[in-house]
Specification:
The protein is mainly beta. It has six helices and 22 strands. α1 packs across α6. The N terminus is likely disordered.
Length: about 500
């Protein structure tokens, strides 16, 4: 989790911002252009996946073998060698948000929406994240090399299916204008399915244009040294092959283990900052598949029986107001410690948020929702107000009034990803006090307790509305994930919320 549990007041706001900016933290005086924020928010809400360099297929999981409408959460551990000078074996934790619908899908590292789907052909726009970085401060061999940043890519994929395998063509381009390049990927897969297991050998041919290869592997004149000449690579064609395996643990979970091998083009291998022309990667983990029924496939009578005689809306909206908490979300708010934070100088930060949700699975006692939200943060005079964007999935347990079919009380928890335009003041303070890195993308956690308003007030306007207390947390996962920038900090919020059906 984050480290928002040891309250320290620290220096004044100007000193904090100056110190944070000296470490690269974007604060009130160094704002992201509005267009860049919008592109990142859209990419985050509609599918920020994980891609370590070029090997996309290694992040496919067993969710593809489950029925339509199946959601799942999981965790994977990535390990792999890198091509750069001085880089050794990398380890990473990767949170997984998986869904296999008729149209929408989240398959490991790729999120998309099928515009065309048949037994032999599929076509879908997609979005994915490319986690590929150079941090010259951590690798002496790369001193004077400028930082290379991760990005979000978007494009489309077309898949042709046959009894002898699947042929997939994918084309993506950078949407955050980091490498400003494009990549095309032609992959052949041959799924071999048993009763509870699937083996999928695959081979990919990837083409990357000169803009992409120059960003990640080029050396400018300013970066050159006597033993490191300037280098401008051209377009590259890499070959990747591997094997993906998954094993079903009954109806509610599966294990997966994938391995891939890559042979890179000589135009990349000849770069003076590259020391290897091949690499090996592995990805293992587990996922839990949620039960219940897909409400979009239930009959009106089934839904009426489940929800007390009225067909429910599958969509909800939620508004909330909250203040910054002194303590970490786990375990103190659950134990009643909801003190306001004083760590940010001159103010207690607050936020107002709007969340849209859709029920993915439902049963008598449990609902699973997908959600997307936008929060407005108020931190003046510490720094200018800013926006954050979140998406993920939440589970809600339902308790009924005595001898009725009416829900009286609910409590739930959610997990997802959060992106902020500026680093929240609580995270800035911990960055300064503990010399931690920062990241605009962190894990998002929430917990809520709520009661049905229509049990207290007999009004059609309040039918299906719940009032309660919401706590949210931005977490660095103990610094264990490249997705969240290796951050060990976080920030916490608590306040009132109102949720109603649409």
């Amino acid at each position: 989790m984050g480290r928002a549990g040891s309250e320290q007041t620290g220096p004044g706001s100007d000193d904090v911002l100056a110190e944070a900016q000296s470490r690269g933290c974007r604060g009130a005086h160094d704002r992201r252009p509005a267009g860049d924020s919008f592109r990142f928010a859209v990419a985050l809400l509609f599918g920020l996946g994980v891609s370590i360099a070029e090997a996309q297929q290694i992040f496919r999981t067993g969710i593809v073998d489950y029925p339509e409408g199946t959601p799942a959460l999981g965790l994977g551990v990535y390990a792999g060698t890198d091509n750069y000078l001085g880089e050794k074996m990398d380890w990473d934790q990767v949170p997984l948000f998986l869904y296999e619908g008729r149209r929408a899908f989240a398959q490991g590292n790729t999120f998309g929406y099928r515009l065309i789907r048949s037994d032999v052909f599929e076509f879908a726009p997609i979005a994915r994240g490319r986690i590929q970085i150079i941090d010259p401060t951590e690798v002496p061999e790369l001193r004077r090399i400028g930082e290379r940043r991760s990005t979000v890519e978007a494009g489309a994929t077309a898949t042709l299916k046959s009894p002898i395998g699947e042929l997939q063509l994918t084309h993506v381009t950078d949407v955050l204008e980091h490498h400003d390049g494009v990549e095309s990927d032609l992959t052949y897969r041959l799924p071999i399915r048993g009763e509870r297991w699937t083996l999928t050998p695959w081979v990919s041919v990837l083409w990357q244009d000169a803009a992409l290869t120059n960003y990640y592997y080029g050396v400018s004149e300013d970066e050159s040294m006597p033993d490191r000449p300037a280098y401008l690579p051209g377009g590259a064609t890499n070959v990747v092959y591997g094997l993906n395996a998954s094993y079903a643990l009954g109806k509610r979970g599966f294990l997966f283990a994938n391995v891939g091998f890559e042979q890179i083009d000589t135009t990349i291998a000849d770069s003076p900052i590259v020391e290897s022309d091949s690499n090996t990667r592995g990805f293992i983990g587990a996922s839990w598949v949620f039960g219940g029924k897909d409400p979009s496939r239930m009959s009106d009578s089934e839904l009426r029986d489940l929800y007390g005689g009225e067909k429910p809306s599958l969509w909800t909206w939620r508004v909330h107001w909250s203040y910054q908490l002194k303590h970490n979300i786990f375990p103190l708010p659950f134990g009643g410690a909801l003190n306001k934070s004083s760590v940010v100088p001159e103010t207690t930060p607050t936020q107002f948020g709007l969340t849209l949700g859709r029920i993915l699975r439902t049963s008598e006692r449990f609902d699973l929702q997908a959600f997307g939200s936008v929060f407005r943060h108020h931190e003046e005079p510490f720094q200018e107000d800013f926006w954050s964007y979140n998406f993920g999935m939440s589970g809600v347990l339902k308790s009924y009034a005595n001898h009725t079919d009416q829900v009286a009380f609910r409590w739930g928890a959610g997990v997802g990803l959060s992106y902020v335009e500026s680093i929240p003041g609580q995270e800035v303070q911990f960055l300064v006090n503990y010399s931690r890195d920062f990241s605009k993308v962190l894990l998002y956690l929430e917990a809520r307790w709520e009661f049905a308003l229509d049990r207290l007030f007999k009004s059609e306007l309040l039918d299906g509305c719940f009032l309660g207390y919401l706590v949210t947390h931005r977490s660095g996962i103990f610094g264990g994930s490249t997705v969240t920038g290796g951050v060990k900090g976080g920030s916490d919020w608590g306040g009132l919320h109102l949720e109603c059906k649409i």
